Amino acid sequence: MHINHLVQIDVRLRNSFGRFWMDTCGGRDQIATAVLKEGWQSYESPMPRLISTWSEAFSPVFVDVGANTGFYSLLALASGATFAHAFEPVREISDIFLENARTSEALSKIQMHLKAVSDVSGEEVIYFPLSGHGLVETSASLNKGFRAKHSAQRKVSVVTLDESLPVTKLNGSSVILKLDVESREAAVLRGAEGVLSAARPIIFAELLPGNDHTAFLDLCERHGYRHYSMSKIGLADAPKMVVSLEQRDHLFLPIETASRWLQELG
Predict the structure, then answer these.
(1) CB atoms within 10 A of CB 21
(2) 3-state helix, strand, coil in the chain (%, to 5)
(3) What's the number of domains the chain is made of?
(4) Among 188, 133, 136, 185, residue whose Cα is nearest residue 158
(5) DSSP H helical segments within 104-166, as ranges?
(6) Quick one: 77 exposed, middle or buried, by C-beta within 10 A (0-12, 13-18, 19+)?
(7) Separation of alpha carbons 95 and 98, rounded Å
(8) Which element (helix H / strand E) includes 62?
């Protein structure tokens, strides 16, 4: 349903129903606009369905690194997640997220971290690609080489997940970790050794070709994870990790709990 600039997103699950709202920002928010046109399950399918199904089944803590305007955090909360830690370093974008959360009556279940995530804490420069498209920017990166040209840059605060999410904050819950940080995913993992060992999150990651993905091979070999490729037809157990523009969304499950997560998919 579309009311003025607001999209009402109804999430019908196996045993429950959830609802949240997103502002299309007059068509400038590409995610909200895509959800309005194609439905919430179609955006980056099958990831929304997996997140909603597992949020209903396990009531996890959702950790959203590269949260943008909040689609995945709000979807997880509407589906049964107990809390969301959202990391978004660009204030203009985090403000839209928080307004979406306010409209969705979800602010009490969200901690917004106005920070980027990496393997060290401090300050770094974030680079904005050319801005002539007039849309809410979704691909600013700490990696200067991610785009050939930039429209702007600014310093932002940077933290590690281990510093920001001590185990006490996760309350022994199941944890879903979503990474979308425009080529800096490996650095996020290097700063999350404690979280990986103690919380054993499942991990969704957007991986782009041309970047170093050895950290994810290490994730599988040293931390005991199994890789699954994702496509519109579903999941595939994929010991060999292939990254392409057509195959950019990937799932990593801890070996010891993989069957528990997968059996909920029916």
Answers:
(1) 22
(2) 30, 30, 40
(3) 1
(4) 188
(5) 161-164
(6) buried
(7) 5
(8) strand 61-65
- pLDDT of amino acid 163: 93
Q: Tell me the C-alpha distance between 202 and 256, whole Å.
A: 11
Is 177 inside any structural domain? Answer: yes
Helix (H, G, I), strand (E, B) or coil at 94: helix
Q: Write the pLDDT tens digit of every residue in 97-111.
A: 999 999 999 999 999
- Domain span at residue 219? 9-116+163-263
Tens of pLDDT, residues 32-52? 999 999 999 999 999 999 999
Token digits of residue 9: 């997103």
Q: Where are the alpha helices (DSSP H) in 80-184?
A: 91-103, 161-164, 167-170
Query: Model-level pTM greater than 0.85?
Result: yes
CATH of the domain at 194: 3.40.50.150
- The answer to whether 189 and 230 have CB atoms below 8 angstroms apart is no
